[in-house]
Structure formats: C-alpha cells, structure tokens
C-alpha cells in the first residue's frame, strides 16, 4: 500500500538542548509513521524568514527568529495516512500549558516560547515546508514491512 501524505516536523532548539529528539521520534514511530527524511541543521535567518513568512514583520517575530536560530534544529519528514492532522494532534496545542497530557507539548513543554516542536498545519504547508528544509535527494522513498499491519 502506498501512502503519499507527508508532514514536516521540527524539533526546536529547546528540545534538542534538553535531549528530547529521541522521544519525539519514538512517538511518531510508535504511532506507525515512516521517517523519510531527517537532518540536524543550524537554521539561517533567511530559511526562517521563508518558513515563517506569514509572521515576518509581526512584533513577536524577532524574538522567535532569535530563538529558532539559537541552536540546532532536527528537521524531519514523516509519511503516513493522515500524518499532517495526526501529527498536529500528537504535538498538542501551540501553548504547552493548554496541551493535554499525552501530547508531546503537554508532556515536555511549559512555555509558549519553548514549545518543543513545529508541525505543518496543512498538507499544502507541509509540501512548502518540506521543500524549504529538504532537497529531493535527501528524502528516501522506501517500503516499510509494517505497512501491511497498519493499513487495510
């Protein structure tokens, strides 16, 4: 079975510094999603301006840009059925204090400005974000042996 939907998930500098990368990966793998791209990157201000283009010029943007460029980010591309919507659900509310226990932000975050992860909010955003953070040759198309146990 071929599942085409992909999402972009970024483990932000706060979570990288706190050693939470493997915990985020574990959540997506345990759910059954397939990792097709991963890299650690120090994001440039130019990349961040493209990624957060709708926020450039807003009062909070300089602080967000400073934080996102303050340390390494683990950029990932995950694939699976309904992965964009489910990925957002797994992350929890943007404000960790409003996130339910059991979500990534609910379990690991406390402050809005240190909310552990970014996840694409739509299929269209995912395509755009994946294209910003990954070259085509950095994404691997492969077949998981688990697929027959996950999908009808």
UniProtKB/TrEMBL annotation:
CDD domains: NDPk_I. One of its GO terms (molecular function) is nucleoside diphosphate kinase activity. It catalyses: a 2'-deoxyribonucleoside 5'-diphosphate + ATP = a 2'-deoxyribonucleoside 5'-triphosphate + ADP. One of its GO terms (biological process) is GTP biosynthetic process. Residues 4-141 form the Nucleoside diphosphate kinase-like domain. It comes from Maudiozyma saulgeensis. The active site is at 118 (pros-phosphohistidine intermediate). Its EC number is 2.7.4.6. This is Nucleoside diphosphate kinase. Gene3D superfamilies: Nucleoside diphosphate kinase-like domain. Its cofactor is Mg(2+). ATP binds at residues 12, 60, 88, 94, 105, 115. It comes from the Eukaryota. Keywords: ATP-binding, Kinase, Nucleotide-binding, Transferase. Belongs to the NDK family. InterPro entries: NDK-like_dom, NDK-like_dom_sf, Nucleoside_diP_kinase, Nucleoside_diP_kinase_AS. The lineage of its organism: Eukaryota, Fungi, Dikarya, Ascomycota, Saccharomycotina. It holds the Pfam family NDK.
